[in-house]
Design brief:
By secondary structure, the chain is of the alpha+beta class. It has 4 helices and 14 strands.
Length: about 325
């Protein structure tokens, strides 16, 4: 007799859960964005900026027969800083339902793209999106929630050019244990992957030297280390030691998720060295919220344990 109320309550909770998930599933197949039009036609300036940011020097993206890099597929559909005017009421309703049910946090998890034909400068872009799936309740380290996947069909001149699937997690943040007094992390930092192509770089770091590869065929500097030259294809190279001067080319501040041996928030910078190559590393010596693009930095080496030494960059007062 004592167990009956508990069983009854569990049954009611299960029914409510099934009812809620049925409401979510009802949104599958409904439009998320309809009759969207790209803000700009496919154009050479955007292709150039993309290739410069990615360091992609493929000749396929320049000249009279240029095509757009396939991975730019989503870029032609983006609405900039403004809210997408094509987003449907159904998609807004789905997000609101999840918000009101406690799944108010959101994180983008992954995307998938399929390319059917190349896009070329002058192509006019149209697109439409559908809510492809809403998952059952999933438990993650971030918290319990539902994955929402949208599928966007991108067209050029009315013909399907590619498909972009984008997935987010709407979740209720998991309760975190109270933060204890600061102290050294119990976990060691992950070890870098050392292989035959980059072993020389890590040998240099061990003796506090940041080594940059230099092609002996054309003289181009390159980083990270590669087995051959992107410019001329030569497999022959030597190294030059970086002076240590650089500037913050770009950066992010890591707040979440927490990871053993790291104590967020902290700044991770894309550092442009005086020699012209770029390297990703921590920006230290200044508060994370004071890091700025263009900030001068200076190379330093920090020991994290008995085995691990890493190059980091100290902010320099201007």
């Amino acid at each position: 007799m004592n167990g009956e109320p508990e069983v009854h309550e569990e049954s009611e909770a299960s029914e409510r859960s099934e009812e809620f998930e049925a409401r979510l599933k009802a949104y599958e197949g409904r439009p998320a964005a309809a009759t969207g039009v790209g803000r700009d036609p496919v154009n050479e300036p955007m292709i150039r900026h993309w290739c410069e940011a990615m360091g992609d020097t493929s000749p396929a993206y320049t000249g009279p027969d240029a095509i757009a890099p396939p991975t730019m597929l989503q870029a032609w559909t983006m609405a900039g800083l403004s809210r997408s005017p094509e987003r449907t009421a159904a998609y807004d309703e789905l997000l609101r339902l999840l918000d009101e049910s406690g799944y108010h946090a959101v994180v983008a998890t992954d995307c998938e793209q399929e390319y059917l034909r190349p896009l070329r400068p002058g192509d006019e872009i149209t697109f439409d999106s559908v809510i492809e799936s809403v998952s059952d309740l999933k438990t993650t380290k971030l918290g319990a929630g539902h994955f929402v996947t949208t599928r966007t069909d991108v067209r050029a001149g009315g013909a399907l050019a590619g498909t972009h699937r984008f997935r987010i997690l709407k979740y209720a943040p998991a309760r975190r244990p109270k933060k204890q007094a600061p102290g050294p992390p119990e976990e060691r930092r992950p070890r870098p992957v050392v292989n035959r192509d980059n072993a020389g770089f890590w040998e240099g770091v061990a003796r506090h030297a940041l080594l940059i590869q230099r092609c002996t065929g054309c003289g181009d500097l390159r980083f990270p280390w590669l087995p051959g030259c992107n410019s001329c294809g030569s497999p022959e190279w030597d190294t030059v030691e970086a002076s240590g001067d650089g500037t913050v080319y770009s950066y992010v501040v890591m707040h979440h998720p927490p990871f053993p041996a790291f104590e967020p928030p902290y700044a991770v910078g894309l550092i442009e060295l005086a020699e012209g190559v770029r390297i990703v590393s921590n920006v230290v010596g200044v508060p994370y919220d004071k890091v700025r693009i263009g900030m001068p930095v200076r190379l330093d080496f920090r020991r994290y344990d008995e085995e691990l030494v890493l190059p980091v960059f100290q902010g320099v007062a201007e």
